[in-house]
Design brief:
This protein is an alpha/beta fold and 243 residues long. Helix content is 45%, strand content 14%. It has one domain: Rossmann fold (3-Layer(aba) Sandwich). It is an enzyme of class 3 (hydrolase).
């Protein structure tokens, strides 16, 4: 690419008329910003007060359904155990998670967290969120979940919950996350994992490893999920006591 040197001003200036050169400047700048963000997100507090559980689930399941009441009870038990609860901040099972947290800790609203995304049709953040964050894109929102969570629980949900599950699963697979439980609740997710085993572990054309399918821990009850979190939180607390 030949770029003429301007007769005055900055010698390395790029004219907007040169779309290729301008696009390269923009590309390099964005990549540089990503590198800065990736570096900054490596920083962690040496210790913090509470273990944080993110609960993913459908926005479409309303109060009174078995899934809603189950997620609410799960969040209540985890909050009483000493966990902070994080959700997507919206309606449905997200609201159930935040409602359960607030029911267990009504005077500590900051322990009920919502991380929402701006969408044209998105409802306002639910009334049980005590500490709210908003993102303009799914990408930054998903990154936020991954950075702040000590455990993930995936309740029944749709495509959004599948996306969240898949990202956490892959980060655990490649050890960008480690010692972070990924708990999937209900028959639908168990069937998804069985489908993956059948289609990705065929002899002669393996697309994954058997160990990858041991990452999600399938449970069918609140008690099983709480037991896994309790065990992992005990290890986490021991680590928090280190100097």
């Amino acid at each position: 690419m030949n770029q003429s040197i301007p007769s005055f001003g900055q010698s390395d200036a790029v004219s907007l008329r040169d779309e290729d050169a301008a696009s390269k400047v923009l590309h390099d700048a964005v990549m540089g910003l990503w590198e800065v963000v990736n570096s900054l997100t490596r920083l962690r507090r040496s210790s913090r007060q509470n273990y944080r559980v993110t609960i993913f689930g459908s926005a479409r399941l309303s109060e009174g359904t078995p899934a809603y009441e189950g997620v609410k009870e799960l969040a209540t038990q985890l909050t009483r155990l000493g966990c902070d609860i994080i959700s997507g901040g919206g309606p449905g099972l997200m609201k159930a998670a935040n409602e359960g947290a607030r029911a267990a800790a009504p005077n500590a609203s900051h322990r009920s967290v919502g991380i929402r995304v701006d969408l044209p049709f998105e409802q306002e953040i639910n009334s049980f969120v005590g500490q709210a964050y908003a993102h303009g894109t799914f990408f930054s929102r998903l990154h936020h979940f991954m950075l702040v969570s000590d455990a993930f629980i995936v309740a029944p949900g749709g495509i959004g919950s599948l996306l969240e599950l898949s990202l956490a699963w892959q980060l655990l697979q490649v050890r960008r996350l480690y010692n972070v439980p990924l708990i999937v609740v209900g028959k639908m997710w168990g069937e998804l994992i069985d489908w993956g085993r059948r289609n990705m572990l065929q002899d002669g054309r393996e697309l994954a490893s058997e160990v990858d399918f041991e990452i999600p821990r399938c449970v069918s009850s609140i008690e099983e999920a709480v037991a896994i979190i309790e065990e992992n939180r005990r290890t986490w607390l021991a680590g928090q006591e280190l100097p």
